[in-house]
Protein backbone atom coordinates (compact mmCIF):
# COMPACT_ATOMS: atom_id res chain seq x y z
CA UNK A 1 0.00 0.00 0.00
CA UNK A 2 1.34 3.50 -0.78
CA UNK A 3 2.46 5.33 2.35
CA UNK A 4 2.36 2.26 4.58
CA UNK A 5 5.36 1.34 6.73
CA UNK A 6 6.47 -1.99 8.12
CA UNK A 7 8.30 -2.56 11.39
CA UNK A 8 11.64 -4.12 10.53
CA UNK A 9 11.73 -6.06 13.75
CA UNK A 10 8.29 -7.65 14.10
CA UNK A 11 6.99 -7.13 10.52
CA UNK A 12 3.71 -5.42 11.50
CA UNK A 13 2.47 -3.03 8.79
CA UNK A 14 1.23 0.46 9.74
CA UNK A 15 -0.83 2.93 7.69
CA UNK A 16 1.85 5.63 7.79
CA UNK A 17 5.24 6.61 9.18
CA UNK A 18 3.80 8.26 12.31
CA UNK A 19 2.11 5.03 13.44
CA UNK A 20 5.25 3.04 12.68
CA UNK A 21 7.42 5.49 14.64
CA UNK A 22 5.06 5.39 17.63
CA UNK A 23 5.14 1.58 17.56
CA UNK A 24 8.95 1.52 17.36
CA UNK A 25 9.27 4.02 20.20
CA UNK A 26 6.96 2.00 22.47
CA UNK A 27 7.82 -1.58 21.53
CA UNK A 28 11.50 -1.31 20.53
CA UNK A 29 12.83 1.71 22.48
CA UNK A 30 16.52 0.82 22.23
CA UNK A 31 16.36 0.31 18.47
CA UNK A 32 14.29 3.48 18.07
CA UNK A 33 16.74 5.60 20.08
CA UNK A 34 19.75 4.26 18.21
CA UNK A 35 18.13 4.93 14.83
CA UNK A 36 16.90 8.39 15.85
CA UNK A 37 20.31 9.49 17.09
CA UNK A 38 22.32 8.06 14.20
CA UNK A 39 24.32 10.96 12.77
CA UNK A 40 22.78 13.57 15.08
CA UNK A 41 25.11 15.92 16.87
CA UNK A 42 22.48 17.99 18.66
CA UNK A 43 19.68 16.55 20.81
CA UNK A 44 16.81 18.45 22.44
CA UNK A 45 17.10 18.12 26.22
CA UNK A 46 13.31 18.38 26.59
CA UNK A 47 12.03 15.75 24.15
CA UNK A 48 15.25 14.01 22.97
CA UNK A 49 14.58 14.80 19.30
CA UNK A 50 17.86 14.78 17.35
CA UNK A 51 19.04 17.53 14.99
CA UNK A 52 21.92 17.78 12.56
CA UNK A 53 22.65 21.45 13.28
CA UNK A 54 22.64 23.83 16.21
CA UNK A 55 20.35 26.40 14.51
CA UNK A 56 17.78 23.69 13.81
CA UNK A 57 17.86 22.62 17.46
CA UNK A 58 17.49 26.22 18.66
CA UNK A 59 14.49 26.81 16.36
CA UNK A 60 12.91 23.63 17.69
CA UNK A 61 13.55 24.49 21.35
CA UNK A 62 11.72 27.80 20.99
CA UNK A 63 8.57 25.70 20.64
CA UNK A 64 9.11 24.29 24.13
CA UNK A 65 9.44 27.74 25.72
CA UNK A 66 6.38 29.07 27.53
CA UNK A 67 4.72 31.96 25.73
CA UNK A 68 5.48 35.35 27.26
CA UNK A 69 2.72 36.61 29.53
CA UNK A 70 1.13 39.96 28.92
CA UNK A 71 1.71 42.47 31.72
CA UNK A 72 -1.27 42.98 34.02
CA UNK A 73 -3.13 46.24 33.43
CA UNK A 74 -2.28 48.95 35.92
CA UNK A 75 -5.03 49.98 38.29
CA UNK A 76 -5.66 53.57 39.30
CA UNK A 77 -4.66 54.45 42.91
From TrEMBL:
It holds the Pfam family zf-C2H2. Residues 58-77 are annotated as: Disordered. Residues 68-77 have a biased composition (Pro residues). Residues 42-71 form the C2H2-type domain. Keywords: Metal-binding, Zinc, Zinc-finger. InterPro entries: Znf_C2H2_sf (IPR036236), Znf_C2H2_type (IPR013087). It comes from the Eukaryota. One of its GO terms (molecular function) is zinc ion binding. This is ZN576 protein. It comes from Oenanthe oenanthe. The gene is Znf576.
Amino acid sequence: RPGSRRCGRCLITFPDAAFAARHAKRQHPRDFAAAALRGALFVCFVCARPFASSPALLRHQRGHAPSPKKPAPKTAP
